Amino acid sequence: MGIVAGLDSSPDFTRIVVCDSDTGAVLRQGYAPHPLDSPEGGGRPADVDPQAWLLSLGEAAGGGLLEGVQAIGVSAQANSVVPLDAQGNTVRPALVGGDKRAQVAAADLIDALGGREAWAQAVGSVPQAAQPVTKLRWLARNEPEAAARVAVLLQAHDWLVWQLLGRPVRRTTDRGGASGTGYWSAATGAYRPDLVELALGHQVMLPEVIGPAEAAGTTPEGLLISAGTGETQAAAFGLGIGLGDAVVSLGASGSVMAVHHEALVDQNGMITSLADATGMHLPVVTTQNAVRALRGTAELLGAADLESLSELAMKSTPGAHGLVLLPYLEGERTPNLPHTAGTLAGLRRESMKPEHLARAAFEGMLCGLADALDVLRGRGVEVRRVFLLGAAAELPAVQAAAPALFGTQVVVPQPADYAAIGSARQAAWALGVSRGTLDPRTPPVWQGAVAQVLEPGEELAVGQAVRQQYVSVREQTHPGAL
């Protein structure tokens, strides 16, 4: 038996799990918040000193948590840029998260390469404000002196792996992390340095992309460090999803991803073609509005919280007495309607009750995510079951409606640190390959996530009728949008 650790450095905290390398059983855990200064006006900062990640890691690993550990895997927040100079020092704080400052830069990049289709063909995604390539464009336009000093580009998990290894000359990343940059193609498995130059104004050194089961290196103490990956890919690996599985994540916005055997090119840019942490592909479709539509409805109805809104919605029936909510409250990405607003249709005297509006909000959110699932299905991605993640997945109104609206089995895993678990699983894989006990093409089989399984059952026909009503309103309001 071996002992491995996985750490997840999210935007707000570091979580560490120590696991049995053979079974995946969690032996112990650590946690520490990131010591970040809140930006003016609150919210998450767009600029972060990477040393804060190390401080948090050290605190989370305190008390002998890593005693006996033989390998570590690292996952970290996606869409981060750590710009280094030629000596390996940070040029400026890391640019992280959904940086709205870069919205104009995204539009500039799209035009500079000849449109959305050109980007989709080049790297499988269209520039968005959060992406590293777009942050580079913002940096070049707004901080040209800093941009000129950038010699090396890393992401958060690359930088943490590099630090754990003692800052070696060799810098590495993995396919999953590279695929989210906007300058590496999951289809070709190669960087596009010309796109870095288009964004930043000059060439830089990029980390070597190593395989899923490869080790990034070994510390002087003999601790193996695996390739690392992005938080999304690590969570998918921790859940143990495979072909036929999709993951629907319920945050303020929503995302749908599924394992697929090839990279997808979407001319409309609705699909972001990521690589996963196993050598497969992970196409992702994002909706701008998910739980934010529920919170807005709760405020409108005076509901104290989402649990109260769910309780109210359960007093209604499928179809919400004809009410249909298109939840495009902040514009929408799927379909691509960035400047639109939400629509409430089907108002009649008998439907003008709080419980029906509450039900329409849940159904509208889930139908929007079903649209995202259909984008993937329309490109040949098989979806036999859906893993539903996020705190809202526990709400009775979500669980009552999701299987029928998605048209498939829905799995609600128990809350766990899946990104950290996925990182630990990657560490176990690299450790086994280094010892000759595991195949580099086949990850270790670990215990599956404990979950609640929901079937569409007799409600399937009713759910599909509700979905069709939603599609009809969407087509009337935004013809041809999908």
Give structural notes.
By secondary structure, the protein is of the alpha/beta class. 34% of the residues lie in helices and 22% in strands. It contains 15 helices and 24 strands. It has helices spanning 51-60, 103-113, 116-123, 132-142, 144-149, 156-164, 175-178, 193-200, 231-239, 291-301, 306-313, 354-377, 396-406, 418-435, 460-477; strands spanning 3-9, 13-20, 26-33, 47-48, 71-76, 82-84, 94-95, 152-154, 172-174, 184-185, 190-191, 208-210, 215-218, 224-226, 229-230, 244-250, 254-258, 271-275, 281-287, 324-326, 343-345, 383-389, 409-413, 451-454. The strands form seven sheets. Strands 1, 2, 3, 5, 13, 14 and 15 form a seven-stranded mixed sheet that branches. A hairpin with a 4-residue loop joins strand 10 and strand 11. Residues 38-42 have low confidence and may be disordered.
- What fraction, in percent, of the residue positions are helical? 25-40%
The total beta strand count reads: 24
- Percent of sequence in beta strands: 15-25%
Main sheet: strands, sense, barrel? 7 strands, mixed
Uncertain regions: pLDDT < 50 for 5+ in a row?
38-42
Shape: globular
Q: Treating each run of at least 4 consecutive H or I residues as one helix, how many helices?
A: 15
Note the gap between the termini: 51 Å
Q: Please tell me the overall pLDDT.
A: 94
Structural class: alpha/beta
User: What is the radius of gyration computed over CA atoms, rounded to a whole number of angstroms?
Assistant: 22 Å
Oligomer: single chain
